[in-house]
Amino acid sequence: MTKEQILKDIAKNLVEMEPERVVELCNEALNLGILPEEIIDNGLIAGMDEVGNLYEEEEYFVPEVLICADALYAGLDVVKPHITTEDATKPIKVVIGVVQGDTHDIGKNLVKIMMGASGIDVHDLGRDVPLEQFIEKAEEIEADFIGMSTLMTTTMDGMEKVIKMLEEKGLRNKYKVFIGGGPISQSFADKIGADIYTNTANEAVRRVKEVYGGL
């Protein structure tokens, strides 16, 4: 089996929710001498990108995404021990959570899954997060991005408060802020000074990577 074929098969079996086969193929790829980073980028993450597309097209839903994520993590468990420290690149660090007053976290959880699957280091604060915690955690882990979501119009202003708190502390230029959720729009993001607005998890991953690449 050629390198290209085995990497395609890893992606295909991940999309088809076959974790055991993904593990077998990852082991085969390592035995063929394929670099762990190639297996991750061109096999596992390529498959998860397709899962994200299927979710956006409403062919897959949250349960399917979760099963595919399990297949991804099973593959990563095989491959990651073979990455040498010198080869490991510094991951993008993201703090995410649902703003104070809101407990709706399905969308946030999906972003967490998709970002983690794409190699982003995600620190999830959960839901109903006190606004100060976004900044405290970002400072603690030296994050690159702060992400906030809400499904309630009554808690939207919490996002603006976090941005103002960053400004007051002289930290606004240190972090890129991305926001999302049912009532959120690009115009609202522009109004409060957020750096990124997305309405899907897959788009959030793409935009964060694009912005990080431009820093």
In short:
The chain is of the alpha/beta class.
Biggest sheet statistics: 5 strands, parallel
CATH topology of the largest domain: Rossmann fold
What gross morphology would you assign?
elongated
C-alpha end-to-end distance: 39 Å
Label the structural class: alpha/beta
Poorly predicted parts: none
Q: What is the subunit organization of this protein?
A: single chain
Radius of gyration, in Å, reads 18 Å
Could you spell the SSE succession in H and E letters? Answer: HHHHEHEHEHEHEH
Assess the beta-strand content as a share of residues.
5-15%
The overall number of domains is 2
CATH superfamily of the largest domain: Cobalamin-binding domain
How would you characterize this protein structure?
The chain has 215 residues and is an alpha/beta fold. It folds into two domains: 3-82, Methyltransferase, Methionine Synthase (B12-binding Domains), Chain A, domain 1, CATH 1.10.1240.10; 93-213, Rossmann fold (3-Layer(aba) Sandwich). Helices cover 56% and strands 10% of the residues. It has nine helices and five strands; from the N terminus they run H-H-H-H-E-H-E-H-E-H-E-H-E-H. It has helices spanning 3-15, 19-31, 36-56, 62-79, 106-117, 131-141, 157-168, 186-192, 201-213; strands at 93-98, 121-124, 145-149, 176-180, 196-197. A five-stranded parallel sheet has the order 2-1-3-4-5, with helices on both faces.
